[in-house]
Write a structure and sequence with these properties.
The protein is an alpha+beta fold. It is 41% helix and 15% strand. The protein has a domain of 127 residues.
Length: 189
């Protein structure tokens, strides 16, 4: 008996031909392209976050360098503030070392009239502010774009003898500000 060859049944239009077992492994070109697009999107997002992190780190480092330079300058100003004395009744000046409790104003039974008047009218600060304005800033100020300004603090009653030191960045933003009173003001009436 001879085997009669069979002809495949014609396919119906809605019927999907199934792959044989060896054709089911692997991905189609569309699946690979979708995966590649998703990987590119993830990589772009990762790079953006990486770049943002680096720029934030750089900004933080710059701010830290600015604050360190300002702290160095402030330490110098505080030393000058503490060494400012009126041991010469005619002119207050910065001493080369700490004056000591009895060296801030002219010796005698009471402070001189010139010293008292300078305390009351606020002119006690004049030489100190002039000296601070002419004191060199740390070398880092120029590369970091920092400027320093020393002014008498706005005070309707001048006898409080306060002055303000302000440090600004190259963009004009205030980086730090402090109000100080010279130590010698403790002997004012």
């Amino acid at each position: 008996m001879a085997v009669k060859p069979t002809t495949p049944e014609p396919r119906k239009p809605n019927q999907v031909q199934q792959r044989s077992g060896d054709q089911r492994s692997g991905f189609t070109l569309v699946e690979v392209m979708i995966a590649a697009v998703l990987m590119v999107i993830a990589a772009i997002g990762s790079m953006a976050m990486f770049n943002y992190g680096i720029s934030q780190n750089s900004n933080s480092r710059d701010k830290q360098e600015q604050q360190t330079a300002i702290s160095e300058d402030l330490a110098t100003i505080q030393v000058l503030n503490d060494r400012y004395s009126c041991s010469d009744p005619e002119a207050c000046a910065i001493e080369s070392s700490d004056p000591g409790e009895d060296g801030y104003y002219a010796a005698g039974p009471a402070p001189s009239t010139v010293f008292n008047d300078a305390c009351l009218d606020g002119s006690l600060l004049d030489n100190l502010i002039t000296t601070l304005e002419s004191t060199p800033t740390p070398n880092a100020f120029s590369s970091l774009g920092i400027s320093r300004m020393v002014v008498r603090a706005p005070d309707p009653d001048a006898r409080y003898l306060r002055y303000t030191v302000t440090w600004r960045g190259s963009d004009g933003a205030r980086l730090r500000q402090i109000n100080l009173v010279p130590t010698v003001a403790g002997w004012c009436p």
